[in-house]
Amino acid sequence: MNEQVVQERHWSTHKERGSFFLMRLTAFGVRVFGRRLLAPLLYLIVLYFFASARGARRNIWQYQSYLADWSGRESLRPTFGSVFGQFIAFADNLLDRLDVWRGRLGFEQVQLVDPSGIRPRLLRSQQGGRGEILVVTHLGNPDVCRAMAELGEQVPLNVLVHNRHVAQFNRLLGEAGDRSMRLIQVTELDTAMMLDLSQRVERGEWLAIAGDRVPLHDGRRVAVNFLGHAAAFPQGPWLLAGLLRCPVNLLCCLKVDGRYRIHLDPFLDNAHWERGRRDDAIQNWAQRYADHLAQQCLMAPQQWFNFYAYWQSGKSEARDAN
Fold it and tell me: Counting Cβ atoms within 10 Å, is residue 219 exposed (0-12), middle (13-18) or buried (19+)?
């Protein structure tokens, strides 16, 4: 398969680029008109994308089919309305992201679900402790990580991304007044990058990295069973954790009944592997994470915002929502 075909299919070349343009346009519209007046226009834009993006409709149909089969819940079986509803949920997500960046998401609007007491460790890291890793997902709203930083009383949060628009995103965050979160572009975990991240952790800073997207030019990926079918998940979060030897926690932000719930779950107390067993350890951790993510999909089925072909080998099984 040539590079051009790979790029056409990879998430980073389509969805993220369009999402960035749409977010800049939305940010401008919110500043000028306010959210209430802008919302109908944004829904019209999403309706256009729904009508024109045949591949995205097919991919969401596939996700909903797999989720229904895996869970045994017939109520999750895809329909034209349920697929369109997922596009509308994405529009709401974009508006919420702007509210987050503009400081309009207060503590009273966020419910923290933290049965294992991870938040106190956030506070301790600002008193001389080491930082830790948060593995986030594109299920729900990952930008509520900002609220996570505020809950930790301005704990420095570094978000590692595989996106060429990092400088623009950081500028957009700055324009919105958000100084508690910084995006760091990660192309590969080379020596210089690992030294920088290690120093951040030693200073008590926390790292956030997505566990459900693979980078375009990085071969570090692992095949796992996700919703009953093989899918490629990144090795990056688990490789990083093992090299830094720090705890790993899972962070997922879901909107339930109009209110965000930040779910914090411990995952690895001290990531490490035995000599010669690195690949086995990473495979095990990635599969455990995929199993956890599948369960979270059931809590908010229409907040899965990976619109690209997530299960490459199963594309022919997906039906178009026409």
Answer: exposed
